[in-house]
Design brief:
This protein is mostly helical. It is built from three helices and four strands; from the N terminus they run ββαββαα. The model has no long low-confidence stretch (mean pLDDT 82). Belongs to the copper transporter (Ctr) (TC 1.A.56) family. SLC31A subfamily.
Amino acid sequence: MYFHWSYSGVPIVFEGWVVYSPGLYAFSILMVFAICLFSEYWASYRHSLNNPITSETQPLINGTKKTFKQQYNTFLSSHYWKTIVHVIQYAINYFIMLVVMSFNAGLAFAVLGGIGVGYFMFGRRRVIIEEELCH
């Protein structure tokens, strides 16, 4: 396989995503760019959930100390949401990978541009946790 610029009748990711005109190709490039922007926003949001400076980590409720059960329920409810957010982020990222693996050069540049602009816009809010540096 090799990268190509053609769009006429070539399926991009799915069998139903076939572009036959320059306008639809440009629209596809813009949509991929927007999806990559959203991916970077979502990654920053996911990292912000792990920020240790949140109201959920404070052990006090109205000036009284939380019981173990209250702390566990708070952790469990937040952990469910973090798990859902994590799965959504990786589903979006795998879709982006499929777009690049369609070997369409215009879409590959849209992915790179969207990820770059998205990181520039949303990356400064990320909190790096050491346990997540492996992926």
